[in-house]
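Please produce the structure of this protein holding fe (ii) ion.
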Amino acid sequence: MAPSLSTASDSWDVINFAVDQGHGVKGLADLGLKTLPNQYIQPPEEQITNSTVVDDDAIPVIDLSNWPDQKVMNAICNAAEKWGFFQIVNHGVPMQVLERVKEATRRFFGQPAEEKNKHSKDNSPSNNVRYGTSFTPKAEKALEWKDFLSLFYVSDDEAAALWPSACRNEAIEFMKESEVVIRRLLEALMKGLNVNEIDEAKESILMGSKRINLNYYPKCPEPELTVGVGRHSDVSTLTILLQDDIGGLYVKKLNSNEWVHVPPIDGAIVINVGDALQILSNGRYKSIEHRVIANGSRNRISVPIFVNPRPSDIIGPLPEVLQNGEKPIYKQILYSDYVKHFFRKAHDGKETVDFAKI
Ligand SMILES: CC(C)(COP(=O)(O)OP(=O)(O)OC[C@H]1O[C@@H](n2cnc3c(N)ncnc32)[C@H](O)[C@@H]1OP(=O)(O)O)[C@@H](O)C(=O)NCCC(=O)NCCSC(=O)/C=C/c1ccc(O)c(O)c1
Ligand SMILES: O=C(O)CCC(=O)C(=O)O
Ligand SMILES: [Fe+2]
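Below is the modeled complex.
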């Protein structure tokens, strides 16, 4: 039974309501709580108000309209080395496609909990489709103020059978329409590593699998006490992130303790390097820590496409990167082992990549 507004937020089982029954944080937000349930209170060091945020610096914005252009390719490689994050404009993914997938995200999360919960870990007929809240509630000391739907792409037929109809077509369309720009970015990044041809084996390692997540961050009481997503780096090769116009994503500056905001730009897509590309490039390209704050007045959505190796791929520093005698700093690892390691623990900043260190 849903608790009434007057119920003190700690005297009923918040976890049972949000996690087990599938109401998520959207369910909590819809109750109109005035205070944040204790389970969502993050330790002070994770609260953004206790971090240094600077506004005199920003991740690069790269215009892809004149493709191919050596200067633009260099800008991509430089951004991947210095920031691990950049935004792209004039990328070729039609604006209507971006609008449609944002709309579909709102439609999916706008459904009743019992409909969404058909796709939870316990109820979904496949591990490739998962609705959930926070990140790994069982492993977390404090929960995160986010609901998500995570879709691992295998084939159109599987998606037709298993992905929720509220967002299936739009999610697939976004994935397919971003294919060209993903290839261009990876080609440029590979040229920067002296890899001039992406053969079949490299194609698998760079972009052999994809996962699309639909993220929903509802309006939050006492947002400064919690996080939308805690500090983490992605385990992908590259992440293609669509955000709406609300803002709230922060990126850590390389070799510093300062954070910068990623301002929403209409029609732009945010790109970030993930751990797999950091490992393949032997640390040249940086998979950077980022996090999302909770918002006290507006609901936010985002849609990342995680472009990954295949689960069965073995990844390690590419031979082309090591050919001049550079010492490998990462070992060869089975990619699915790496991802499982990431998914089984709470977000912990940049710790995941230690799993691959020699
Ligand atoms: C992910 C796996 C390993 C799953 O394989 P599967 O056979 O289903 O393994 P499993 O043993 O059932 O799952 C492993 C654990 O991951 C958890 N898990 C699986 N999918 C997800 C998911 N989408 N979200 C959260 N946890 C998940 C499971 O709960 C398992 O933990 P446990 O329940 O055993 O404690 C497989 O599909 C694979 O190797 N995929 C490779 C491609 C891939 O998915 N790469 C990851 C890109 S995602 C990425 O880069 C970032 C994601 C991210 C960041 C911040 C967030 O806050 C967030 O929510 C998500
Ligand atoms: O919502 C965002 O802007 C970023 C989300 C994110 O970092 C993730 O899903 O990995
Ligand atoms: Fe992320």
